[in-house]
């Protein structure tokens, strides 16, 4: 790799999947070499994720942001420090990378968004005193003046400050709304999952839906509701162990009779890995297991393999785990 200079623009092209074949191969070789600068690479990945996923991307001057970002990165004979200052996007959006997540605020709508990337968790205290624990690859958005109305994409646990005059609402991408006054509950609503679910630990909440069902559902402590997106039918049950619901907050991943496809989405969120299924039967197979988030993906696959007959291998060119 000594005779091949890696430019920040090359990394950007690779991350955004716009690189030509020569650049793609050069970056792949660099990633597997001793010269690989993980901090620099991850910083550019974060920048791309912000510009690619921001709900205000039509207002963002991406090229200006890239120019400023690359100008802030020191030359290769110095230590790369990633994003060194706040990135200003055309005076419309201010973004900054915070410990454990990304926060950005629109200067025109006062919309605040807090997001985590792969394997990250973040605790947020809202202006009303409510506390939110955000799981990996998740995002909440709310108006700065109305922190009790939350849009959730992913998974979060909420401890809601009591206010009888202002209900606290959480809406998922599938327009399922959880409404509470003062309570604690968990909501899991990743867009790629085949289901969404909510569990109430304390207090009382009301669950409604714009798309799936008409009647409102009242939840009491230990109630659990799961909605399978394919049919939209809510399934209500009672949990026996609260700790299972909050396993993700204690460094664990818990799968309860979950399809391999949904497990793959969870592993992607937590470990930043991609599983590609070549066997539809295995993809639909269900597992019950619990793993530490620190466990290597190879060990997880080996354990799952003991209960189902499948094989796997890593495609080093695409960095994908092939399940067959």
TrEMBL record:
The chain crosses the membrane at residues 86-107. Residues 252-317 form the Protein FecR C-terminal domain. One of its GO terms (molecular function) is sigma factor antagonist activity. The keyword Transferase does not apply. InterPro entries: FecR, FecR_C, Ferrdict_sens_TM. The keyword Cell division does not apply. It holds the Pfam family FecR. Residues 113-206 form the FecR protein domain. Keywords: Membrane, Transmembrane, Transmembrane helix. This is Iron dicitrate transport regulator FecR. It comes from Flavivirga eckloniae.
